[in-house]
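Incident log, structure service

09:12 report received: a user says their structure output differs between two submissions of the same chain.
09:20 pulled the input from the user's history:
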Amino acid sequence: MSRPASRKSSGKKSGSAKTPKKMIFELTEENEKLTLELNTLKQLTQEQQDRLDLLTTKLMGAVDKKEFGINDNTDHRLVSIEMLMEMLNKLLVRKQIHDVSVESRVEELETRVTEMSMELAKLTKKNLAYEMGLEDVLKMDSVEQVRDKVYGLQLIAGQAFHSFSASDPSSDSLFLVKGVDQSPDSPAQKSLESARQLNLIPPPRKQPGETHIRNMHRDLRMYVMKEMSTLKSSGADWRMFASRVGMEDSEIQELLALKLQCPMGRVFAVWSESSSATVRLLHRHLMSPQLRYTLLGKRVADFYHVD
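09:34 re-ran on a clean worker, output below:
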């Protein structure tokens, strides 16, 4: 009874066994797949090696070889990763320095362009003032008006003023004030005698307080400029006045650096470009608690209705 069962089991085992031919086929197929993968990996490895060689060659060509103890004949594949990283860091530092240098140069150029633009704006304003002044001269009927207009233009230009004669028949020694140069804006005048006399006789009838400072009494205007050009330790002088009428601190510092004998003349020239620069407003500034030019304010009030 046991033999038939034994034959049945033997038949099942032989049915599940692979033939040598099938095993060879499967192994051959698997070998081909592995070979294909190997070739693909070899190709990728070669591509990465080519990229690394190219990067190494470029790095070696961009740095100082002597600094790293290599030369043109050094095999780039013998260069360590550490040395390559050091080369890369050197190049990054060099690039940062170059970028900073370029940025500084750009800032310098921007500053110069800004300064030139400001100078151009000043020249343009001066040129416009000259053109308008000359047009006004053509419309004037008296020599006195022309003289005052030319004086104003010369003040804007920073040139010497006209030499006005002190032998005015209306002059009175009681009202003559000494000490104002012909050219308060000219440093060369420091070597000249400061003996100009100004006629400060109040007029029979006061002028309107809305008179623009360009048309202000010539000698009174020069007297105000001379008095306010004297520096005070408190700073309540032409510098504070310039700040009150809108001049920038940088402009005030420029005038200080020029060491002008009468910087208030320049301040008046700048302020006169404003339509609100009237004698009434000048008087208000002079009498302010900050400036406290009481005597000057009273002198202006002798000539103009400022109340």
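09:41 both user submissions now match this output. Likely a transient worker issue. Closing.
09:42 reviewer note: The two ends are 148 Å apart (CA to CA). Residues 288 and 295 are 12 Å apart (CA to CA).
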